[in-house]
Amino acid sequence: MEVFYYVVFGALSTIVAGLELGKSGKDRVATTSAFNSFKNNYVLVYSLMMSGDWLQGPYVYFLYSQYGFDKGDIGRLFIAGFGSSMLFGTIVGSLADKQGRKRACITYCITYILSCITKHSPEYKVLMIGRILGGIATSLLFSAFESWLVAEHNKRGFDPQWLSITFSKAIFLGNGLVAIVSGLFANLLAENLGFGPVAPFDAAACFLAIGMAIIMSSWSENYGDPSDSKDLMAQFKVAAKAIASDEKIALLGAIQSLFEGSMYTFVFLWTPALSPNEEDIPHGFIFATFMLSSMLGSSIASRLLARKLKVEGYMQIVFSISAVTLVLPVVTNFLVPPSSVKGGTISFGGCLQLLGFCTFEACVGIFWPSIMKMRSQYIPEEARSTIMNFFRIPLNLFVCVVLYNVNAFPITVMFGMCSIFLFMAAILQRRLMVVSDLHKSSTTQEMIGEDEPLNP
Fold first, then answer.
1. What is the predicted pLDDT for the residue at 336?
2. Which helix (H) or strand (E) holds 235?
3. Measured over all CA atoms, what is the biggest interatomic distance in the chain, rounded to whole angstroms?
4. DSSP 325
5. What is the spatial distance between Cα 454 and Cα 431, in angstroms, rounded to a whole number?
6. Closest by alpha carbon to 218, among 14, 438, 42, 411?
7. For residues 243 and 238, what is the distance between their CA atoms, to the nearest angstrom?
8. Tens digit of pLDDT for each residue in 362-390?
9. 4, 79, 267, 274: which one has the fewest Cβ atoms less than 10 Å from its Cβ?
10. pTM score over 0.70
11. Where would you find the membrane-spanning parts of this chain (predicted)?
12. Complete DSSP assignment for 114-170
């Protein structure tokens, strides 16, 4: 492996360690022991849930190819997963507000465990069922757990500012450290110990079962709107009305879809971008480097949130930086002539792109706890899961279209499109800040007006 990869990984490790160990009083928030116990319980469960997801990632495509399916067949399986998340996942996720968020989290565990079990079958129909179950589980993962956390945090009377601590720690561990360890553990099971590509899925099912046991034994139930008067369609109408009537919610949904759509497109494109001529690149090590970059971003986010910096303000900068990083493949394609030799090591242009991609992953690490913080502020509690799943409809539709047309456009066009989307997200973020400030100003004026008769 080239020294370049070790240098990048080592530099990132040093920076992350320095940021975590060098936190000052301004970067830490004084909390209570009750909150710390609550936070640690949630972070443990979230990390187990994410390990169940990360363990599967490196071997999904490889397992399907080992069963003899071609690129087209595998592509349809992936489309089924995102399509299922868009359709069935939205319905199941929305039921969390009505039937209970704890039940929805348990449903996630059961659904994903069943999806893992289907990986033992080489039958295409069985694997398709597994992808549909996986799509439903993904919607629950990105809505039910956060909805439960926000509601339970508020129900227990903790300081709203402390939510940022839980978000940052969960992303730092669940989307950073756990992802790195899961990738290495999956490789150990499948390659070093020789259990084959289905072994990581069995391990994922075990971690999900452990997490489910903790949820069942230590979590209490909470709801969005527990009234008997609202059926599922009524719940959808409440969510749609909230989005249509509140510009802040609509802007937040658009920002999330634009960023996450670009992020998922990046997941499909980074390999061909770094190895356009089948260069020999260490995929697993690069993946670990990306996750380390994400940890760096979440560490930066924890500092920004601890110092109570305005999320709507600094996220404009984050989106702009991420837009620049994804336009790098377009720029390097023109400035650095690509090699015509097949194989070999990563090119100079590839090295530049890798540094840019690490920067993008750092932006992803900042994005997750920051978007969670904004969602906790703007999305109404009675339809939180429903609205969050509404946000995922355009996202999943976008990813399905990209997957279907991934070979129809040059890779530079795809990255250019993502860069434009990210610049749009920055513009919408600016608009969200303006609308939020106007709303706070008008609310303050109303409160002053109400107090005036009492204080002549």
1. 74
2. helix 232-245
3. 83
4. H
5. 36
6. 42
7. 9
8. 999 999 999 988 998 898 877 787 888 78
9. 267
10. yes
11. 6-22, 43-62, 74-96, 129-150, 170-189, 201-219, 284-305, 317-335, 347-368, 411-428
12. HHHHHTT---HHHHHHHHHHHHHHHHHHTTHHHHHHHHHHHHTT--GGGHHHHHHHH
